[in-house]
């Protein structure tokens, strides 16, 4: 618009150029050119400014899009962080419970291991005590025929088997004078272990017996066991509360009853050193 006005002015000036001096005309013409150049520069500056504005607007749009995207990512990350924290908290609780459970299990295992070691130690002591008893009995009875007396340990129990021919006459239950010496040697060893109780069992073969004094094999086996206990009590001072008597008749044979030798083995008196559970547990408690 400004250039148009200048052009009109230029035409007017041209029309009146004949009336204007050459000096003034040149001056006006120069002013016109400067004004045209300035207008051109303004238009270029305006276009450049518009381009910069468009560029900045695009950058602003892009930046806003990036901001929106980052905001979404931040929200997503926040949610994930919350989930992770919750998971970690749950894992922490689980780990705490598991750790406590493992701790208790280890304590229990430690207690069991200690108990097992104590039990093994007590068993070893008990076995040692039994072996000591066996050695002392064998030493006391070493002058007696091995076929007439047998001392052994089975499943932690000491057994003393004495053949009936060393103790009784056939079909009788009174202990012979010779047998009392054998029982005296056994009693001496048993008195050295006053905390040990024992049972005396009478055994017969399967040949039936019936007399005026004996009803049957049950009766004979019981009377023989009782006779042995009386001798141990009255003549060798073994406390009666340590002893018990049992008759087993012929129902627990060591050998076949079909021949003389087998029946002889089955007729016997057995002394069983009873396991003392209270003494055993005392050994265990000492561990």
Q: What do you see in this structure?
A:
Helix 1 packs antiparallel against helix 2, helix 2 runs antiparallel to helix 4 and helix 2 packs across helix 7. This protein has a 5-stranded mixed sheet with strand order 1-2-5-3-4. It is of the alpha+beta class and 287 residues long. It is 65% helix and 10% strand. The protein folds into 2 domains: 117 residues; 145 residues, 2-Layer Sandwich (60s Ribosomal Protein L30, Chain: A), CATH 3.30.1330.60.
Instruction: Please report the number of helical segments.
Output: 7
The chain-level structural class is alpha+beta
The major beta sheet can be summarized as: 5 strands, mixed
The arrangement of helices and strands along the chain is HHEEHHEHEHEH
Radius of gyration: 61 Å
Number of DSSP strand runs: 5
CATH topology of the largest domain: 60s Ribosomal Protein L30, Chain: A
CATH homology superfamily of the largest domain: OmpA-like domain
Helicity, as a percent range: 55-70%
- What form results from the Cα inertia axes? rod-shaped
User: What fraction strand?
Assistant: 5-15%
CATH hierarchy class name of the largest domain: Alpha Beta
Number of domains: 2
Note poorly predicted spans: none
* The CATH architecture of the largest domain: 2-Layer Sandwich
Termini Cα gap: 119 Å
* Average pLDDT taken over every residue: 77
User: How would you write the strand order of the largest sheet?
Assistant: 1-2-5-3-4
């Amino acid at each position: 618009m400004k250039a148009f006005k200048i052009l009109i002015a230029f035409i007017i000036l041209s029309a009146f150029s004949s009336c204007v001096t050459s000096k003034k005309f040149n001056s006006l013409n120069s002013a016109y050119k400067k004004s045209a150049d300035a207008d051109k520069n303004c238009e270029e500056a305006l276009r450049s400014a518009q381009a910069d504005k468009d560029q900045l607007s695009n950058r602003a749009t892009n930046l806003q899009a990036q901001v929106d995207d980052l905001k979404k990512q931040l929200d997503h990350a926040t949610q994930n962080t919350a989930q992770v924290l919750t998971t970690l908290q749950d894992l922490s609780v689980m780990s705490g419970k598991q750790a406590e459970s493992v701790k208790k299990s280890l304590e229990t295992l430690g207690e069991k291991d200690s108990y097992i070691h104590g039990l093994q130690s007590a068993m070893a002591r008990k076995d040692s005590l039994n072996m000591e008893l066996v050695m002392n009995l064998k030493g006391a009875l070493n002058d007696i025929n091995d076929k007439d007396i047998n001392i052994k340990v089975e499943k932690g129990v000491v057994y003393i088997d004495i053949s009936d021919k060393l103790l009784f006459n056939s079909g009788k239950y009174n202990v012979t004078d010779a047998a009392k010496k054998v029982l005296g040697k056994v009693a001496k060893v048993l008195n050295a272990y006053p905390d040990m109780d024992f049972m005396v069992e009478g055994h017969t073969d399967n040949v039936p017996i019936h007399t005026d004094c004996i009803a049957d094999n049950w009766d004979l086996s019981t009377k023989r066991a009782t006779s042995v206990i009386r001798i141990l009590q009255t003549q060798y001072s073994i406390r009666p509360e340590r002893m018990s008597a049992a008759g087993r008749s012929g129902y627990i044979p060591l050998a076949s009853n079909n021949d003389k030798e087998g029946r002889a083995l089955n007729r016997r008196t057995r002394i069983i050193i009873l396991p003392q559970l209270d003494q055993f547990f005392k050994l265990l408690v000492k561990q």
